[in-house]
Amino acid sequence: MTVFKTFWKILNKNKITVIIYTVMLLIFGISNMKTSENSMSFVASKPDVHIVNYDEDAGITKDLIKYITENSNVIDIEETPEKINDALFYRDINYVIYIPKFYNKDFMDGKNPKLDIKSTGDYQASLEEMLISRYVNIANTYRKSITNEDELISKINETLSKEVETKITSKLDTNNISKATFYYNFASYSILACLLFIISMILSSFNEEKIRKRIIVSNTNYKKHNRILLLSNCCYSIILWLFYVGISFGVLGDIMLTNTRNSIYYKFSNINNLCNNNSIFYRKYYE
Description:
It is built from ten helices and seven strands. The protein is of the alpha/beta class. It folds into two domains: 2-39 and 174-264, no CATH class; 48-162 and 272-282, abc type-2 transporter like fold.
């Protein structure tokens, strides 16, 4: 018991450290909770693409370029291999689409022409590939039953105009959870600082030459002494953790008692039944 009592006496002498870190936690933690704003808005992004068209600007070719332009940021660059490769390397563009000569005619004749591409391989390039794949798959499906080009383009655009409406309803109060997150982010630093500093001070005190000699000449076994010291450190750690948790109940109030189970419901409508035909792309990724 002597070791245990001594541990708490030394801790009591260094209690000012715990108080300082606690005050710092309350000042910085509460100020951040008040000034923080939780944003869950979604901002759609469009890939940066460049189109190299070797075909005439008519029919399916014209409509494909129009679709790409509406759903992407078309970037104009000098159409030389060096300039295009540099633009891909420096991420000025994510995707390059090469429309071959007679693409419109070959497509209507059912020859399944290929679109050559160069890509950075990132998520923006993947998004662009999905957009083009969607157009081509729909066009291939209608071409099997429609031979008139104007009617075919009309059907393609009618299908592409349909969008998926997604509604997400969450019962989780993310604003309150964000406040708790800010508190415990700062509390973790305060707890760690108090543990390291106080325990280091106490162990250093027990390791002083006079104290160490008294321990050696005493009838207390060194193993028992270390076990008591370890138990004291564990008790201090638990009490410190409970102390900061108790403060969180005072600072955050009912937030700590809120059920954080998340319930999210998805509502889909106007879903297009797109075909799963094999892709007609010839992939040529830039390295």
